[in-house]
Amino acid sequence: MDINRSLRLLVQTGKVHFGVRQARRAIKANEAKVIVVPQNVHETVLRELRTSRVPLVQFDGTNMDLGTVCGKPFSVSALTALDVGDSDIMDAVTG
Questions:
Q1: Res. 95: pLDDT tops 70
Q2: CA-based end-to-end distance of the chain
Q3: What is the CATH T-level fold of the domain 3-86, as seen in this structure?
Q4: Is the dihedral of CA 76, 26, 39, 42 positive or negative?
Q5: CA distance 42 to 72
Q6: Where are the alpha helices (DSSP H) in 1-95?
Q7: Which candidate, 59, 62, 65, 90, has a CA 20 to 30 Å from the CA of 74?
Q8: Better pLDDT: 34 or 94
Q9: Cα 54 from chain centroid?
Q10: How confident is the model at residue 56 (pLDDT cuts 50, 70, 90)?
């Protein structure tokens, strides 16, 4: 599975939110299906997101790399999927 391709497809065909604050809101509203975070996400944020029951995918790159893969001109600290669309991102779920 190519994670970069899966993320691009997720952004194009699914419903996503960008940012840690949006991830928290989606978790609280019980809408989040999966959350993708970069390697350089702050440890306290990572710990907080791991305590939720939402599957977490660790992206192998920085927040700038994640933004680039998603086709955005900004860094992405968290990508929350509310609907995965045609993406196979759920295959990358680690826990």
A1: no
A2: 17
A3: 60s Ribosomal Protein L30; Chain: A; (3.30.1330)
A4: positive
A5: 21
A6: 3-13, 20-28, 43-51, 63-69
A7: 90
A8: 34
A9: 11
A10: very high
